[in-house]
Specification:
The protein is an alpha+beta fold. 17% of the residues lie in helices and 37% in strands. It is built from four helices and 16 strands. It binds zinc ion (2 copies).
Length: 233
């Protein structure tokens, strides 16, 4: 049996392809990610970003209207096998990490107000892996079912998360603002047939709007997370 290298959109659903950050200085932000977090540089040809096992983050040159905290995407989660080398690299930057408990998750307030949550997982083989996009909002409890019904998401590690190619985790938060324009602007998903997907969403009252990019539509989930939708090549 031959398995596809990358997750493919299934069941008429959608698969996450990247997380998109607004940055006043993408080059500096990418240098932080590749330097302190030991991820690799990445380019689509027209957009620059970073990649690691399980995820891609792209950076647009646009000063964010505010940090990720306070918006519907609170942070990006990553995993490393050992905190020590990461801490040593982080100490050489102007960005600081904080831990509520020793050995617990490390929160880094990174460039442009992007919060990065790092957990230590000694079972890993790689230097760094993408973990999850952490979505917060008043409707967190309803979100896994929303993603399962509308985007064909699969069950996550527990009932507060789903997998759509990458993991989305949901936590309750009172007031958050939509992600558009904030430090973490959107996630992007691919679907097999954009016209069919748009029609299916319309039937359940979810409106997709055109973007300034050809063949890319956009929708906002009930938390306020912007989702760009394009057609798989
Ligand atoms: Zn994007
Ligand atoms: Zn998280």
């Amino acid at each position: 049996m031959v398995l596809p290298l990358l997750a493919q959109p299934g069941r008429g659903g959608a698969t996450m392809t990247h997380v998109h950050v607004n940055s006043a200085d993408p080059e500096a932000a990418i240098a932080f990610w590749t330097g302190a977090l030991a991820v690799s540089g990445y380019s689509t040809g027209t957009m620059s970003g970073i990649t690691m096992q399980g995820g891609v983050v792209l950076f647009s040159k646009a000063a964010p209207t505010g940090p990720s905290v306070g918006s519907a995407i609170e942070h990006i989660g990553i995993r490393v096998p050992d905190f020590a080398p990461l801490m040593a690299r982080l100490a050489k930057t102007s960005y600081k990490g904080s831990q509520a408990t020793p050995g617990g998750p490390l929160l880094i307030e990174g460039p442009d107000g992007v919060r990065i949550e790092v957990v230590e997982d000694s079972d890993m083989y790689t230097v760094v892996e993408f973990g999850h996009v952490h979505v917060v909002g008043p409707k967190a409890v309803e979100m896994p079912a929303w993603y399962t019904a509308n985007l064909g998401a699969r069950p996550g590690a527990d009932d507060t998360s789903v997998r759509i190619g990458g993991a989305l985790w949901f936590s309750k938060a009172d007031a958050v603002v939509p992600t558009k324009g904030r430090a973490i602007d959107h996630i992007s998903v691919e679907t097999r047939d954009l016209a069919a997907f748009t029609k299916k969403m319309g039937e359940v009252g979810i409106k997709l709007e055109a973007t300034d990019k050809p063949k890319v539509m956009a929708m906002t989930d009930p938390s306020g997370m912007l989702i760009e939708v394009s057609e798989a090549q």
